[in-house]
Amino acid sequence: MIGPDDEEGARPPEDGRPFAEQVLERRGFAITAALFVMLGGLVVPFVGWVAGMVMLWRSRAWTTKQKVWATGGPILASAAVLLVLALLTANWKSTDAGVGGSPVIPVVYDLGSTAVVLLLIGYAAAGTWLLWQALRPEGRRA
């Protein structure tokens, strides 16, 4: 028989707060949130990313400033790269090989797929940074 006083049984929270609230402060939740931000959009497109963002904003492992940068940084970086590419390709002649015959620079109609790839790379980088922040010792967190 397992009871509340059993060593391996369920124990009530020590400080009287609900268990769900305590989970938000655990390191394992922060690591899971960082992994969802990093890989969620790749494994389950859009839904995985949304789950990662919800977990990120619910977690108490990061400051609000860090959460804002992790959420908006990849979007801003992708937008900046797309703007530069759009400006580069605006007046160039397109061929089957790409802009000006270069297969490296995408043509205007390729910018949508380029944006998706840039966002996946950006959120992988943001998730890696969040994971690094979550794994740092308490005294060294910014």
From TrEMBL:
Transmembrane residue ranges: 29-56, 68-92, 112-132
Sorted UniProt keywords: Membrane, Transmembrane, Transmembrane helix
Protein name as catalogued: Integral membrane protein
